[in-house]
Amino acid sequence: MFKNIKRLVVKIGTSVISENEKLNNALFRSLSGQIGRLLKNKLEVVLVSSGAICAGMEVLNLKARPKDLPLLQATAAVGQNILMRMWEESFCIEGFKVAQILLTREDLIDRKRYLNARNTLNMLLRHRVVPIVNENDTVSVDEIKFGDNDYLSSLVANLVDADLLIVLSDVEGLYERDQDSKRSFKIIKEVKRITPYIEGLPCGTKKEVCVGGMSSKIEAAKIAVNSGIPMVLSSTGISDVLSRVVGGDDIGTLFLPKEKMVSRKRWIAYGSKISGQIIVDEGAKTALISSRKSLLASGILDCKGDFRTGGIVSITDVKKNEFARGLTNYSSEEIKKIKGLKSALIEQALGYRYYDEVIHRDNLVVF
Questions:
Q1: Domain that holds residue 250
Q2: How many structural domains comprise the chain?
Q3: What's the whole-number mean pLDDT along residues 338-365?
Q4: Does the predicted TM-score (pTM) go above 0.70?
Q5: 161: alpha, beta or left, given left = phi > 0 and alpha = psi -120 to 50?
Q6: 2 in a domain, yes or no?
Q7: Are strands 274-280 and 300-304 parallel, antiparallel or unpaired?
Q8: HSE-up (13 A, CA, CB side) for residue 243
Q9: Residues 63 and 207 in one domain
């Protein structure tokens, strides 16, 4: 799995580059040195870095992460410049240039902006520049914000078609209670499938400068592995952790990937905004999952939401469990008129029939 890695995304949380809730220059130097060695070995690295709000809190003498949105955005605006300067100075010592990439959720929802961001990142990598990605906290609001950079890092891995996602934290991996000793914990070395048991292991974070915690890392792993990208969760407390992970050393927790998705399907699954829901019967669910068929009107029981042709919809079974997403050929109004009908009867119901399929299999992602 690690033999042919050429491009990787490294996510660095605030806890990794801060000490006593202040950014630590020595930690920046250590990490840029590790990334520099990867770059000198002809690997391409995109860095997703938190820390802007932590830096801004120090400048503004704030003791706790702001809960007021305007103050939070102002703190990020103050701190982002400091964060980038520290990375720039650290990578300069290694002989590499950096570029700042600030993203909001809207940048990845819109297909054109998504492609523009991907083209920019690809061009930076081609010129041996290290893209440093962060959420644009100065303009993000609840409706468009990622929420934490774990989630953002998995979307960026999708965006650049990475071969590996490495999430660095202050813990060495995902822990579970040791059955032989009820009082101690052990690292899960390999996660083949993210089950409800795995999802139930983490707890959140209580650190003032951080967002997320282990739960957000599990969510990031879901996106990565479902897209066909392996993810490793490990700690910067391990010496030369990045080179050792890329070299295949048995450190941290490895989340094993599923079949690789093509770029367009990755955007449908995780980049786009869900505009509605289609509920299907068990026969249609089986056809979509097992036989990889297109979704026909005959298998549709109902739809919810107000969406147009070309909208991305969630596909659920009768118990409201989502198992797929797709780009629809018909609007919600049209689907309500043709649900349950054979394809040959679509024209009779609508007066026209543009497509036999409501969602073609090429525009369908089954999780």
A1: 7-265
A2: 2
A3: 95
A4: yes
A5: left
A6: no
A7: antiparallel
A8: 15
A9: yes
Query: Of 265, 300, 328, at which residue does a domain stop?
Result: 265
- Within 227-268, where are the H helices? 241-246, 263-266
Of all residues in the chain, what percent carry a pLDDT higher than 90? 70
Tell me the C-alpha to C-alpha distance, in Å, between residue 184 and each of 52, 106, 169.
35, 43, 20
Q: Which amino acid is at 199?
A: E
Phi-psi map region of 199: left, alpha, beta (phi>0 left; psi -120 to 50 alpha): alpha
The b/e string for 105-129 (b: 16+ C-beta within 10 A; e otherwise) is bbbbbeeeebeebbeebbebbeeeb
User: DSSP readout, 143-186?
Assistant: TT--SSHHHHHHHHHHHTT-SEEEEEESSSS-EEE-TT-TT-EE
Contact in structure between 278 and 328 (CB atoms under 8 Å): yes
Q: List for the chain the helix, strand, coil content (%; round to 5).
A: 40, 25, 35
In this structure, the answer to whether residues 16 and 157 fall within a common structural domain is yes
Q: Do 259 and 353 fall into the same domain?
A: no
Asked whether 194 and 222 are in contact (CB, 8 A), the reply is yes
pLDDT tens sequence across 39-61? 999 999 999 999 999 999 999 99
Q: Is residue 260 part of a domain?
A: yes
Give 305's DSSP letter.
S
Q: Which of 265, 300, 334 is the last residue of a domain?
A: 265
Q: Side-chain half-sphere of 101: how many Cα atoms within 13 Å?
A: 29
b/e for 214-223, b at 16 or more Cβ within 10 A?
bbbbbbbbbb
CATH number (domain holding residue 280):
2.30.130.10
CATH number of the domain at 134, please: 3.40.1160.10
Residues 207 and 280 occupy one common structural domain: no
DSSP 269: I
Residue 88: Cβ within 10 Å count: 18
Instruction: Specify the 3-state DSSP secondary structure of 329.
Output: coil
Same domain, 318 and 350: yes
Cα of first residue to Cα of last residue in the chain, in angstroms, is 21
Would the pLDDT of 296 be above 90? Answer: yes
Q: Is residue 1 part of a domain?
A: no
Query: Does residue 103 contact residue 55 with C-beta atoms inside 8 Å?
Result: no
